[in-house]
Amino acid sequence: MLQTSRLALVLTLMMFVLPNPAAGQIGGIKVPKVPKVPKVPTVTAPTTQPAAAEPAAPAADQPADAPGAAPAKTEAPGSGVWVNYDFQPGEIPLYVDDFSRDRVGNFPKRLEFISGNMEVAEWNGARYLRSTTRGSQFAIVLLDTLTERFTIEFDATASSGNVYSFIRFAPDAPSHVKYYFYNTKMGGGVDGTGPKALGATTASVEPRALFRFRIMADGSYVKVYINDTRVANVPNAELGRSNKITFEYSGLEGEPAFIGNLSVLAGGRELYDALEESGRVATQGIYFDSGSDRIRPESTPTLVEIAEMLKDHTDLDILIEGHTDNVGNAASNLALSDRRAAAVRQILIDTYKIDGNRLSTIGFGDTVPAVPNTTAEGRQQNRRVELVKK
């Protein structure tokens, strides 16, 4: 028993005196090191559109979200960067489409396919034509040659890395319009072998962020806008005219490019000239937040023209009418059109100092359509504010 106790004591002392086995060894036996598992890089999905202001809805009720990406900071009409903003949409829709009637995964029925991989895709609650190849091309085909006065509006994303997108109006025309993302800004304007002017947004934007692109042409005079910035002002552009408007834009499988909410409108006359001739004039240039009577800052040019007309003609009193299309609840449309007409009156009083006694309002909802509501162009034309000479 004593010997056993002594042996246990010796073994215990050896455990404390002898050094521990080296790292990676147990009792002198080497243990193979387990290789570190390499970190799997995180794959970042293409940047989605930032949380922008509510899309703009032209002039009257539009139950579905209406087109119009806007700068992140929303300002009141006639203030901030919008003071010198002068885009005014045409009055007669020639082509309007938000792809809501196309099947997701298909190419839109109303566009002409030219080249590339493109399909209708759902993105952030709306539908867009998505491109996943370089140099994708499609065309808007009009019934007749594009008018001398016209406007074009659409939402788009630009490919990162200074890749250009183009809009062309006639084969072999010296000038075309383009846009691109470069060095934290969106750039664009009129380019080609003819007169050219290119500019950039004042505010920085994220790569592949959604923006609103606009073109306003009167003969050879062409202006181009990105969000709230006019990037080109060319009095002698040579865009040409045909019955096709061709778009070329580029995306990649991992970085798709998007275009949506397209509209082409024929330009109209000065508001006062039209009012004098027929006693009433419709405008597509007063924009509201979707489902709201809050007037968007893009309405500034039209509001300024109305205010200047009233100041220049002090004997002129007007009735402001609100109209909608037939989408949605008729009673809701009627109430909203009434509130929107009242909002136009109030901003003319508050911001432009027009005597309220000269202005009256009424909302008609969808009860007085200008044209049938059977097409997207018809519904666009029916969403309007009309001015009536009293």
Describe this structure in words.
It contains 5 helices and 23 strands. By secondary structure, it is α+β, with helices and mostly antiparallel strands. Strands 4, 6, 7, 9, 14, 15, 16 and 18 form an 8-stranded antiparallel β-sheet that branches. The longest helix is centred in the C-terminal third of the chain and has 21 residues. The protein is globular. The N and C termini lie far apart (125 Å). The N terminus is likely disordered.
Keywords, please?
390 residues, alpha+beta, eight-stranded antiparallel beta sheet, 5 helices, 23 strands, disordered N terminus
Secondary structure: number of strands: 23
Strand content: 25-35%
Helical percentage: 10-25%
What distance lies between the first and last C-alpha atoms, to the nearest angstrom? 125 Å
- Structural classification: alpha+beta
Tally of separate helices:
5
- The H-and-E topology, N to C, reads as HEEEEEEEEEEEEEEEEEEHEEHEHEHE
The Rg value, from CA coordinates, equals: 31 Å
Runs in which pLDDT lies below 50 for 5 or more consecutive residues are 1-73
Q: Which oligomeric form is depicted?
A: single chain
Let me know the average pLDDT.
Answer: 83
Main β-sheet: number of strands, strand sense, barrel status? 8 strands, antiparallel
Outline: globular
